[in-house]
Design goal:
Number of strands: 6
Strand order of the largest sheet: 1-4
Number of helices: 10
Strand content: 5-15%
Number of domains: 2
Largest sheet: 2 strands, antiparallel
Distance between the termini: 30 Å
Structural class: mainly alpha
Order of helices and strands: HHHEEHEEHEEHHHHH
Length: 296
């Protein structure tokens, strides 16, 4: 995961440029939901602004950092996802490992679901784009929290009191996922400096199956990045002259920039290489072995 910091005002400007009049139409619909007390409409208009989030996120899934197809060809690959569900919020089941780590979820108000966040159906800070695996298969209408649910809330900035266990990927008001999740080679790890932050990292990893080898695309892409990065970093160290060194350093920069896939994984590996080249080499070898194992 990675965060895309932007303000509500900046988003509104981008939306208005892309789709003039959309914000006013969205406000009218939100007023209707407010009168009804729940979300209901025969057709939606949020897909009209999907491309704005695709650009903002560099074409990456907000949750797993996979690089998806381009704007010209890949709109069907990207789902415009509601971070907080607009309808009923389903109860998510904790794994045994999360329970042992001390994670506790707030039980639904009644039954197995909570009321959804009907006033956030058209809130620009409640959107992101994700791959279909993360959205349809995993995220669905789940929204686990540790605090008291405020389903009638209209401002995402004020809803952090719910103590959500997932991190809002768009906006500048939530924890940076990089402070909650780090990588040791192919594998993500929770790295928060408090119980709540550590729980957010643990839940995000488990929720989106970021450490599940069955998500072969993720592991293959991370392995390719580690193999490439190790080569670039080593060649930069061995460069015969400043010009040659700058070429390999630029390749490192290209692999770790925000627009590259799996930026967090790449940056963590670079940091490790600079601190402990022997351990980095071991992880490089493991990445090579993994690639060999899936190519058979």
């Amino acid at each position: 995961m990675i965060q895309y910091p932007i303000s509500q005002q900046q988003l509104e400007q981008l939306i208005e440029i892309e789709k003039p009049g959309w914000i006013e139409r969205a406000r009218y619909r939100t007023d209707n939901f407010s009168d009804l007390g729940y979300y209901h409409e025969s057709s939606s208009i949020w897909s009209e602004v999907k491309v704005v989030y695709m650009r903002l996120q560099y074409g990456k899934c907000a949750y797993c950092e996979r690089q998806l197809e381009s704007e010209e060809y890949g709109r069907i690959e990207h789902d415009l996802e509601h971070f907080r569900p607009k309808k009923k919020a389903k109860s998510w089941k904790l794994t045994r490992a999360l329970k042992q780590a001390g994670v506790v979820l707030t039980a639904p108000i009644s039954g197995t679901t909570d009321p959804g966040y009907h006033l956030l159906a058209y809130n620009l800070l409640n959107y992101c784009t994700s791959c279909k695996s993360c959205n349809s298969r995993l995220k669905s209408n789940y929204f686990p929290i540790e605090g008291i649910r405020s389903s009638g809330g209209a401002d995402p900035l004020q809803l952090n009191s719910e103590k959500p266990l997932l991190v809002n990927p768009v906006g500048n008001f939530d924890n940076d996922p990089v402070s909650l999740i780090s990588f040791h080679g192919l594998f993500p790890m929770a790295s928060g400096n408090s119980d709540y932050k550590r729980h957010r990292g643990l839940v995000s990893i488990a929720f989106f199956h970021l450490d599940d080898r069955r998500r072969k695309y993720l592991f293959r892409e991370r392995a390719n990045i580690i193999v490439s990065l190790h080569s670039f970093l080593k060649l930069a160290d061995l460069a015969a002259n400043p010009e040659e060194k700058s070429v390999y350093e630029e390749l490192v920069n290209m692999t770790t920039r925000p627009s590259a896939p799996h930026t967090n994984c790449a940056c963590c590996f670079c940091e490790l290489y600079n601190q402990d080249k022997d351990e980095a080499y071991e992880l490089f070898q493991l990445a090579v072995s993994y690639l060999q194992s899936i190519s058979v």
